[in-house]
Amino acid sequence: MKLKTNRIEALTDGIFAIVMTIMIVSMSELFKIDKFIKEADYSRMFAGLWSDFISYAISFMLLGVLWLTHHWQFQCISYIDPPLVFINITWFMFICLIPFSTMMLGDHPDYFAPVVAFEFNILIVFLILYVQWAYATKRKHLVAPSLDGKVISQQRNVILSLIIITLSAIAVSYGYHMLVR
């Protein structure tokens, strides 16, 4: 059963809009403080949020890249079927975890577990994106038959390089953690 892609694309846009909004709303929780706090204490607290802002910026830009990659893939994907829908739903589940893993990372950047949790979250997102592309382009059953094989290979290679970068980041984080421990 082949279906049009418009519903999954609309769902993607909605999920990304919500996740990106949650990212900033969760940042506002950091500013819930006693209204009688001294200015100097507030300034110190604000200055201490650098890791939260860096985590937010990285994750927000990463979400933008992921949305764009999904959008680009669906410019090439002509139809969807139930397995591709399931792959997308699984992908969305891990996309929706990004605000949580980002806040863990921002709150505790010096701890190994939040760093690795964030990196594994991103790794799973990239792996599922790869599976999605591989499934859709397998025997070109969900893409236009005229789609150039080089385009298919280039997209696979881009996602594979992102997976390798993420695995490298996990290895570096582990090495750093073992070094400073």
Share of helix, binned: over 70%
* Biggest sheet details: none
How many helices? The count is 7
Give average pLDDT, whole number. 92
Strand-residue fraction?
under 5%
SS-derived structural category = mainly alpha
Number of DSSP strand runs: 0
Radius of gyration: 19 Å
Question: Can you write the helix and strand succession as a string?
Answer: HHHHHHH
The low-confidence runs, each spanning 5 or more residues with pLDDT under 50, are none
Protein described:
- The protein has helices at residues 6-28, 39-47, 50-76, 82-95, 98-107, 112-137, 149-180.
- Helix 1 (6-28) packs antiparallel against helix 3 (50-76), helix 1 runs parallel beside helix 5 (98-107) and helix 4 packs antiparallel against helix 6 (112-137).
- The mean pLDDT is 92.
- With 181 residues, the protein is mostly helical.
- The chain contains seven helices and no strands.
- The termini are far apart.
- Helix content is 78%, strand content 0%.
